[in-house]
Amino acid sequence: MSSKLRMIVAGGGTGGHFFPAQSIYKSLAEKGVVIKYMGSKYGIEAGYKKNNEIDMVLLNIRGIQRQFTLDGLLKNFLFPFRFFQSYYKSIKIIKDFKPHLVIGTGGYSSGLPLIAAIQRGIKTVIQEQNSYPGITTRKLASKVDIICVAFNESINILNTSNVALTGNPIRNDLCLLNKKIAKSSYGFNVDKPVIGILGGSQGSTPFNNHFKKTINDYKQKNIQLLWQTGKNDFDHLKSYDDKKNIRTISFINNMNQFYSAADIIISRSGAIALSEMTFLGKAMILIPLPHSAGNHQYTNAKSIEKNGSAIIIQQSQLKLEYLEESIFNLLKDPIKINQMEKKSKEISFKNSTEKIINIIMEMAQ
């Protein structure tokens, strides 16, 4: 076995858990650490399996289904079998790989490698993105060596001494581009406002249904929409793309370009999206995902709203067109937008990825 430091980074299921794991993985690899990534074959990470830059193992594990459908019941029936199969696979990988440290970034695929590591006396770190910690973090909080969090609210909820306030790991190349060039790249008029619609890595069907109904309101006011639809809805929404005022995108490959073109961003309140938008100093209208685990998206949004950098609108209020009222009023008040941008920047964490990596390296050595 190599004398180099060896680590396992585990986490995924959604982009909110996978992308932090990816950031940590890449940063550690740059320091010469030998790393193995563990995720789920049912998560977003499965689409990155062919990426040769990541040594990836995918477990046959998926989360408990909350929908009372025949398909959901069948998946829940199989959960215990998948759990034990993935648990023993995690043990075998840890025995063979002999990591010095295991890092979990949340999601159902991170818990089993962490449990296996704890049982074998291997050091463990959890990177928790949300203000209301996920079930893996809450269950293992007293057993892991340290938890890196991004919100003060998390510290109060966990109520344990092994917590470090670091912020969330974000991509090293995240930056704002020239706004006019970014707008032009989408074919937009650089002198007209652009609203970025960000529904999360999978898109948001409620967002999409709402904008189908209100799209003419934006056109009439010369407001341009940069609309991320998600892959599932893209085919029946791409006809709205007029190559001029409305641009539909299934998945955003260049986030810097998207963030830079948008004057205001309408977004769910996933922790990583919030970390990126505050880092870049964006004005936001946040629509938390209803019924998110522990209602964490609403808690995330409240922590951003309280300093004046965002407006919260509940999904149930979309039909009342509160969203349009908020957007149209903001666009009449550029000073207010500028204030929101400044306040957004004020609450962002500086060098959060570096802080997390320093904690990990210090523990491992």
Largest pleated sheet: 7 strands, parallel
Q: Whole-number average pLDDT?
A: 91
At CATH level 3, the topology of the largest domain is Rossmann fold
CATH class of the largest domain: Alpha Beta
Helix content: 40-55%
* Separate helix tally: 14
Distance between the termini: 17 Å
- The succession of helices and strands, N to C, reads EHEEHEHEHEHEHEHEHEHEHEHEHHH
Kindly report the oligomeric state of this protein: single chain
Class from helix and strand fractions: alpha/beta
In the CATH hierarchy, the architecture of the largest domain is 3-Layer(aba) Sandwich
Q: Strand-residue fraction?
A: 15-25%
Gyration radius, to the nearest Å?
Answer: 21 Å
C-alpha geometry? globular
Number of DSSP strands? Answer: 13
Structural overview:
The chain has 365 residues and is α/β, with parallel strands linked by helices. The chain is built from 14 helices and 13 strands. It has a seven-stranded parallel β-sheet, sandwiched between helices. Strands 10-9-8-11-12-13 form a six-stranded parallel β-sheet, sandwiched between helices. Strand 12, helix 11 and strand 13 form a beta-alpha-beta unit. It is globular.
Task: Describe the secondary structure blueprint for this structure.
Blueprint: E1 6-10, H1 15-30, E2 34-40, E3 56-59, H2 70-97, E4 101-104, H3 111-119, E5 123-128, H4 135-140, E6 146-149, H5 152-158, E7 163-165, H6 179-185, E8 194-198, H7 205-220, E9 224-228, H8 231-237, E10 246-249, H9 255-261, E11 264-267, H10 271-280, E12 284-286, H11 296-305, E13 310-312, H12 322-331, H13 334-346, H14 352-364
Parallel strand pairs: 1-2, 1-4, 2-3, 4-5, 5-6, 6-7, 8-9, 8-11, 9-10, 11-12, 12-13
Helix pairs in contact: 1-14, 2-3, 6-9, 10-13
